[in-house]
Amino acid sequence: MIRLFARHRILLPAVSLIVLLAATFYMQPRAMSYFGINLLFNLAIPIALATLAQMMIMMVNDIDLSLGAFISLVACITATVLHDQPVLGMAILAALILAYACLGALIHWLELPAIVVTLGMSFVWAGLALTILPSPGGSAPAWLRTVMTVKPPLFPMAVVAAVLIAGLSHVLVIRSGIGTVLRGVGGNAASVGRAGWPLLRLKALAYALAGVFGVLAGMALVGLTTSADANIALRYTLLSIAGVILGGGEFVGGRVSAVGAVIGALTLTLAASFLSFLRLSPDWQIGAQGAILILVLTARLIFTRRDRTQG
Amino acid sequence: MKTLLLSAAAIAMAATGAQADTSGKRIALSNNYAGNSWRQAMLEAWEDAGSAAVDNGIVAAADAFTTSENQATEQAAQIQNMILQGYDAIVVNAASPTALNGAIKEACDAGLTVVSFDGIVTEPCAWRIAVDFNEMGRLQVEYLAQRIPEGGNLLEIRGLAGVFVDEEISAGIQQGIEENPQFTISGSVHGDWAQDVAQKAVAGILPSLPEVVGVVTQGGDGYGTARAFDAAGRDTPLIVLGNRQDEMLWWAEQRDANGYETMSLSIAPGVASLAFWVAQQILDGAEVPKDLNVPFLTVTQDTLDDVLAETPEGSVASTTYEQADAQAVIEAAE
């Protein structure tokens, strides 16, 4: 029964994505091509990475409100320092990941609410981003641009990248031993602690992983946009939370799905394009996006309830 | 409206002699924000120019799209969607001068013509219809120097912090001050281009200011500034205005009451129609330089009544550009 439950969890996001994709292709047949699919989904790759970063935090029952600002900062560093002095750039990005780990440790050690700490940090990241890049500019390192515009055979970059990211993070979070323990921290931190695991280090690890995915998201974004802006990724904070939830994750209990998170991010991106193809007035678009979210969540609730009564 | 249709019809006749036929071409507007009077007037200008051109068979479509959250990543996705929708040209008012470059490159590579205006983009394959905001700041100080040769203290109202336009206008004002050292900026506040914000900000700083002879602004903030001076019981200084209807109405009232004299300048939201015609000209096969300049729309004591009568309540003074205007701007740049 639990297996079925787990399968349902990923089934629903997948079905929503397929339905939306079919509707989009019906509306805009031109999208049904190698080139079209890449255009539809390439900007979903940084969102998918951001969603995975958020998932790492939500996995240990916290929430990160600074993610958008953090990714903007990474984008600014990638377009400036990493481009001009690769070694220094790498070092700064590594330091940022370390800062995320320290943040996780601090939140656990002082028992601070993550929502407040990360909200505060969002201003720190935004300030640093403005200091590094006061006016929009910079340029993407050539290798990064190559990676993000590569044209693999058969499937476009966006699809290959999404599958790769989903697969690797699935292995990391769901299959590996340490991933299972991390999810356990979200499920029942006290038990994991009594079993002898160092909670402080685990929490720091979860945040560090979020930092890694955040850095990857910022780099992927710059690879696509070719240059940065201190406000470039601000909307990723809320998109990433919505993506995790849409993909079958929960706010508490360590119940997350890496594949689901990637699908959630793709669905959100596609929903926006679909509404734009519908020629819906922008005043209604935010509302319509919200309606799609509520629709999927309602469907999920119905599935969960039924599953529970049967089990 | 009638004259607009007539002139558009005249253009349609003239255009039949052009190099290429654009009647099957589709042009889209990618706009990042619609939340103020300037942007609303801009969208109307696009709608007017676009629908007249469609009716006259000059182009097949001129659709406007606005992003809901004013975010660069959202607009990049919007532009990529336009490529999929099969538009021949995209006219962009960009959320960021750089963050859309990837999407715009995709559009150019797919064979689309991209024209950016107001919020321009740095991607070399796109055309830019730029406003010399720096000059807009400098001109204000120059005007003040004519009116108040002895100089004095100025109050500067700035726009939204961190936005390129705000920095450019402010830099132009600084340059003007350097050229006219009899003026000093004794205070500066952020009015965010909104009357209510400007009024609150000015009211907050006024008690700490010495006598102010002039106020340099960025548009959308002049009326709020005047009200703050009024509420504090201080003499109204010379406020340079920004073509908003409420500002011009206040100006006309003051002029009738006590002979108040000033000037007002801004970019006409009609620049959207200019961008439309430039895109049409490029599709038509015209040789167009990548960088074009839009003229300011200046309102003086003499033209105030006419402009005010034409400006709808709550809107911004505007002019609608025609195909001939676009050709003139293109020629001026060559």
UniProtKB/TrEMBL annotation, chain A:
It is a multi-pass membrane protein. It comes from Sagittula marina. Coiled coil: none annotated. The keyword Secreted does not apply. Keywords: Cell inner membrane, Cell membrane, Membrane, Transmembrane, Transmembrane helix, Transport. Pfam families: BPD_transp_2 (PF02653). It comes from the Bacteria. One of its GO terms (molecular function) is transmembrane transporter activity. This is Ribose transport system permease protein. It is found in: Cell membrane. The chain crosses the membrane at residues 32-53, 65-82, 88-107, 114-134, 154-174, 204-226, 232-252, 259-278, 284-303. GO terms for cellular component: plasma membrane. CDD domains: TM_PBP1_transp_AraH_like.
From TrEMBL, chain B:
Belongs to the bacterial solute-binding protein 2 family. This is Ribose transport system substrate-binding protein. CDD domains: PBP1_ABC_sugar_binding-like. GO terms for cellular component: cell envelope. It is found in: Cell envelope. InterPro entries: Peripla_BP_I (IPR028082), SBP_2_dom (IPR025997). Residues 27-286 form the Periplasmic binding protein domain. GO terms for molecular function: carbohydrate binding. PANTHER family: D-ALLOSE-BINDING PERIPLASMIC PROTEIN-RELATED (PTHR46847:SF1). Pfam families: Peripla_BP_4. Keywords: Signal.
